[in-house]
């Protein structure tokens, strides 16, 4: 089981009103709109936490993208998965800070700023342009030998 924290007041706005919580249907639509394979995906919203079940059957990269797709939504403060440790490496995420660029993130996380394209590719389709990141956004950091 994994639990990841997100900035509740940062992210994509899927619903109306400042205090509205995202619904399960809105989150599932977001995952589908991003083209992520979500066969057998079960989501539950409990306050500002989303419980994600059924992601164990997808690849590690798709699992991580689903976590980010539902976590980087305004109103979501945490994502919990039920998948057991199946020997896959734990995902590596980075929370964007004010002033960050993908180059700076790549220097910090991968030791080489020119590897920013690997971070961009690892975060598609959630990212549409390398310059469009925002403080509080959580990004996947690809690891050596792990598919993007």
Structural summary, described in words:
The protein is an alpha+beta fold and 148 residues long. The chain has 4 helices and 6 strands, in the order βαββαββααβ. The protein has helices spanning 24-33, 60-71, 102-110, 116-122; strands at 2-5, 42-46, 49-53, 78-81, 93-95, 138-140. The chain has a 4-stranded mixed sheet, covered by helices on one side. A two-stranded antiparallel ribbon has the order 5-6. The longest helix is centred in the middle third of the chain and has 12 residues, at 60-71. The model has no long low-confidence stretch (mean pLDDT 84).
Q: Average pLDDT value?
A: 84
Principal-axes geometry comes out as globular
Number of helices: 4
Separation, N- and C-terminal Cα atoms: 22 Å
Residue share in β-strands: 15-25%
Helix content: 25-40%
What is the radius of gyration computed over CA atoms, rounded to a whole number of angstroms?
15 Å
Order of helices and strands: EHEEHEEHHE
């Amino acid at each position: 089981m994994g639990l990841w924290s997100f900035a509740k007041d940062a992210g994509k706005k899927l619903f109306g009103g400042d205090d509205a919580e995202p619904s399960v249907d809105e989150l599932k639509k977001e995952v589908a709109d991003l083209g992520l394979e979500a066969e057998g995906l079960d989501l539950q919203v409990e306050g500002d936490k989303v419980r994600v079940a059924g992601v164990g059957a997808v690849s590690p990269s798709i699992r991580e993208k689903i976590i980010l797709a539902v976590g980087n939504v305004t109103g979501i403060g945490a994502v919990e998965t039920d998948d057991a440790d199946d020997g896959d490496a734990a995902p590596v995420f980075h929370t964007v800070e004010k002033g960050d660029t993908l180059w700076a993130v790549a220097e910090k996380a991968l030791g080489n700023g020119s590897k920013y394209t690997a971070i961009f590719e690892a975060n598609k389709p959630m990212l549409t342009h390398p310059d469009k990141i925002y403080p509080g956004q959580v990004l996947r950091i690809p690891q050596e030998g792990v598919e993007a």
